Amino acid sequence: MPLPIAAKPEDVGIDSEKLEAVFARAQRDVDDGTLQGCQVAVARGGVLAGFRSFGKAAIQGELHPVTDDTLYVIFSSTKAIVAAAVWTLFEDGLLRLDEKVADIIPEFGTNGKEVVTVEQTMLHIGGFPMAPFRAEDWDNRETRLARFAKWRLNFEPGTQFIYHATTAHWVLAEIIERRTGKEFRSFIRERILDPMGLDNLYIGLPDSENSRVADVLHMVPPVPPPGGWGEVTPDAILNFNRPEVRKVGVPGGGGIARAADLAMFYQPLLNGGVTHDGKRIMKAETIDFATTVRTTERHVDQIHGIPINRALAVVVGGGDGRAHLRGFGHNTSARAFGHGGAGGQIGWGDPPARVSLGYTTNGFLDMEAYGRRNLALSSLAGACRL
């Protein structure tokens, strides 16, 4: 089913000229050769205000024009989608923040990890950022549980923030399965994606859709990842060109979508938990609970040296003048929340403005380039409202 789109941006309170500035900034990187191609979308009022696709993309090794049907790996922007599914467990009384992970997953309770809580896991302060887990091992239950048992702590839980690139969300996927009795990909589809009408957002890509997915590529020579991003190596990034890895739906970074789907994912979360056609995804109180900052001043971003401002598996812009360092723009509010991806993908929603942004690309650059682009796109999108 096509996503709903406004007849004109002004119908949903978006300025057409300012929206064109968002599109122009996205197109610039394609025109100057920085990227092969990309997509960008802005949504408000439960519908798309605009969605554009630019350039070309290698798909299964062959270059094709990017269309509005092209899919991209969204890397850690996936985290917010999996998080939303976990939020529904809190709403349904199936999960508490203060529960020990080992009380839910006994196999996890080894090597000092028995003290780790659900809240610490969702805030990336659980102490196990470097634990290994091959995507292909997920669907082998015996191997999966053996991995959890072998994991060791890298620091005392709660004492610091180090980004858990994939480990925390492997645990969250297992919690979903233990508490719902459903396979995590199916639960996310049934509880979040289908009610939101996101037919083109996948956590676990069907084989039939690989012919639509842009191959990931390094546009510049890759550099070693910083700090707790140790898992996000150049080779690990390229693994997402493999159909068997895409099929797993790595919960911390393997989602696949269009920019339009990423922007539209946030719309119900900005509108009291209700879609444009009246489907309730979750209660407004649940969203407020989940998007409240829970990290403290001692939980510092290793890259920028600022408080990380984490809510339950999403980042919050904050009102300290540093939102731009957290992946938001100069024109987003303190309550804006979302999660970016390792390749500079963008997904956020701003509750007071009810504006959301989605940006996808397959081209990996350097972190400084991502930062400049994300700041520009997010600032322009944040300024779009009439």
Describe the overall structure.
The two termini are 29 Å apart. A hairpin with a 2-residue loop joins strand 1 (37-44) and strand 2 (47-59). The mean pLDDT is 95. The strands form three sheets. This protein has a seven-stranded antiparallel beta sheet with strand order 3-2-1-10-9-8-7, sandwiched between helices. A two-stranded antiparallel sheet has the order 4-6. A two-stranded parallel sheet has the order 5-11. Helix content is 32%, strand content 13%. The protein is of the alpha+beta class.
Radius of gyration: 19 Å
The number of helical elements comes to 12
Spatial sequence of strands, sheet with the most strands = 3-2-1-10-9-8-7
What integer is the average pLDDT? 95
- Rough shape? globular
Q: What's the count of strands?
A: 11
Summarize the helix and strand pattern as letters: HEEEEHHHHHHEHHEHHEEEEEH
The amount of beta strand, in percent, is: 5-15%
Helical fraction:
25-40%
Q: Distance between the terminal alpha carbons, to the nearest Å? A: 29 Å
Report low-confidence residues grouped into runs of 5 or more: none
Largest sheet: 7 strands, antiparallel
Class computed from helices, strands and strand pairing: alpha+beta
